[in-house]
């Protein structure tokens, strides 16, 4: 099995694992991710796998870089926020401004 294929399988496993954990407006039930989540990975890794012989090593490194980015949540193919707190207001962020009187 080539490095690109194993990177693809690892990417699919990560997408599936994350899909089983999430619950969004478009996917109200926890379960397998929508097929569109797999299409992007399939297209990218198909292109990487189709590269000629000498380009297979850089393609494999790039493919494993995508897997590492997905694992570290740097690349999020699902389009979800990186953490549940992003975009939500916190008490510190929503503190009212105090006006300072000017002389």
Strand content: under 5%
Roughly what percent helix? Answer: 40-55%
Low-confidence stretches: 85-89
Number of helices: 3
- Quaternary state reads single chain
Largest sheet: none
Mean pLDDT: 77
Overall geometry comes to: flat
SSE order, one letter for each helix or strand: HHH
The number of distinct β-strands equals 0
How would you explain this protein's 3D organization?
With 103 residues, the protein is an all-alpha fold. It has a domain at 3-71. It contains 3 helices and no strands. The model is unreliable at 85-89 (pLDDT under 50).
Put the structure in a nutshell:
This protein is an all-alpha fold and 103 residues long. It has three helices and no strands.
Topology:
Layout (H helix, E strand, L loop, with lengths): L2 H19 L13 H15 L6 H16 L32
């Amino acid at each position: 099995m080539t490095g690109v294929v194993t990177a693809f399988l690892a990417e699919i496993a990560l997408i599936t694992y994350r899909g089983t954990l999430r619950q969004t407006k478009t996917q109200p039930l926890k379960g397998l991710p929508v097929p569109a989540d797999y299409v992007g990975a399939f297209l990218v890794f198909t292109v990487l796998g189709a590269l000629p012989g000498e380009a297979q090593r850089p393609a494999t490194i790039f493919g494993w870089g995508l897997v590492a980015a997905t694992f570290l949540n740097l690349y999020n193919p699902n389009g979800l926020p990186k953490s549940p707190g992003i975009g939500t207001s916190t008490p510190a962020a929503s503190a009212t401004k105090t006006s300072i009187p000017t002389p």
